[in-house]
Amino acid sequence: MRTVQSFVRGAWCQGNHTVPDVNPAHPSTPVAQVSLASTKLAEQAVQAAVDLAPTWRSTPAPARGEILRRAADILQQRMSDVALDLACEEGKTLPEAAGETARAVAILRYFAAQTLEPDGETYPSHSAKTFLYAVREPVGTVAAITPWNFPIAIPAWKIAPALAYGNSVVWKPAEIVPLTAIHLVQALADAGLPSGVLNLVLGRGSEVGDTLTTHPGVDAITFTGSNQVGRAIQAKAVALGKKVQLELGGKNPAVVLADADLDHAADQVARGAFLSAGQKCTATSRVIVERAIWNEFRQKLVQKTEQMTLGDPLDGKTKIGPVSSEQQFKTVRDYLEIAKKENAVFLTGEPVPEKGEGYFIMPVVLDGLSRQSVLVREEVFGPVAALLPAQNADEALELANDTPFGLSASVFTNDLNRAMRFVRNLHAGVVKVNQETAGLEFQVPFGGMGDSSSGSREQGKVAREFFTQWKTVYIDTF
Ligand code: NDP
User: pTM for the complete prediction?
Assistant: First the structure.
């Protein structure tokens, strides 16, 4: 059995206690043991990153990019091992895990290429003897705190730009996905990243979190996870003068209008709601359907949902694996009990599962809920979608925007005018027409409105906003 450890100043370091890395499909057979870091080790990790920050920022940007490019190649060579470990510890199907690893490779390559892009602007000065320009410099030392649901893609879209733009990093992945984290760190180390530039802390958020987010050496924190933890980190860190970027939850609507291609819409809604067991911040959780097609669409969605085979992530027939942990299983189950109390009609997914060997939950389509119900207002983060009828497009738009979140939203229609009306008026950071709410490209900005995000967007060229700061330079020559 493998034991995985933190990586500090280029060395694998033992923590102060060990816990099993659980396979959510087979919880009684752990995939590894995780040695969890103490706060002392977390402090050493931050100190290593702080010590290496000057070396890394003075490394020419194209040389930094070359290391990222090599890491991408290495990760690509190791793709099948990474995907297997990811599927076994997180519960995604093997094709989903391979797809996510391929995405991490592409992200590393994208930010490698960004190191050859212009890093500033020149300006005409009011003075004839002044050369006036502004240049982007690294922020310094970045703490990256990442969740379990995309254990390699999310870390890649934080760590790759952080490194490309010259920052040193201390990274805390979610405690339940350490093996995947090790693969990313090892690929960067093997690619020649100097020791101490990227440090990995395997530890519980409740134990090492404060050290990483309040340490005076940390200049910026990039976080993806729950609203509760994200907002608490933000409150503390901003008070200490740190830069903070948060990607939080969603309650993403898919609106199906009467003129849509209903087969396509049902397929996309089922994918958006249930792939990766619905554990995506961009997952579809409210399906708003125009009355005129209510019965027909509902039937089609149920049919598509019933075709999605639930099973072992390593079985080729499986479309949906288990939810990622016992905690997640309990959370989703509790929400389904609330749904029953709210008199929801389960169109699929009954009976609500008891805990057995594996944290499996059938995809659930709910009908009969009001817009005030808990299942329509709160993020479930599991394979659960609620259907809501709308009399017309006006009411559909109003329902879609009736949430404090604003991450992703879809509209299904063949009418360009109606589509554009939704594009203009949906309150969401990502809007899609005739596509599922989930599924992102990495070269464009990603983030949400309202309670879904805070700070500048991630991914694409705009990632530079968070990981750099402007320096304006006035040079007089005589
Ligand atoms: P959390 O917000 O608890 O965890 C996200 C990350 O933050 C993990 O690495 C976690 O570490 C870390 N963390 C936890 N507490 C602290 C702290 N005090 N200081 C610093 N870091 C901390 O999410 P969960 O994993 O518990 O999931 C709970 C819910 O969050 C889900 O049901 C879902 O609703 C939402 N979520 C949203 C995601 C998104 O993509 N927006 C992703 C994942 C979850 P550790 O795991 O060790 O506790």
Answer: 0.97
